[in-house]
Amino acid sequence: xxxxxxxxxxxxxxxxxxxxxxxxxxxxxxxxxxxxxxxxxxxxxxxxxxxxxxxxxxxxxxxxxxxxxxxxxxxxxxxxxxxxxxxxxxxxxxxxx
Length: 97
What we know:
This protein is mostly helical. It is 44% helix and 0% strand. It has two domains: 9-42, no CATH class; 46-97, no CATH class. The termini are far apart.
């Protein structure tokens, strides 16, 4: 019999990308399925130079980067801010911020 987990898949290791940070496709799909009103999308991982200026992906990336940079400055300790493997730094790297 299959083992039933109480925590959602996007909060477990199998729904997260530990190397690059954030959620993997399985985690994003599980989140959207569990939250019907949600419209969570995968990270924009293309290089900024390859994105169409003013396009949806470019605007999502710009918005994410500015929001996360502000969070990094205000909400993280010096240790976390300088740790290359912290979740916030992995996310910023993944989004090419």
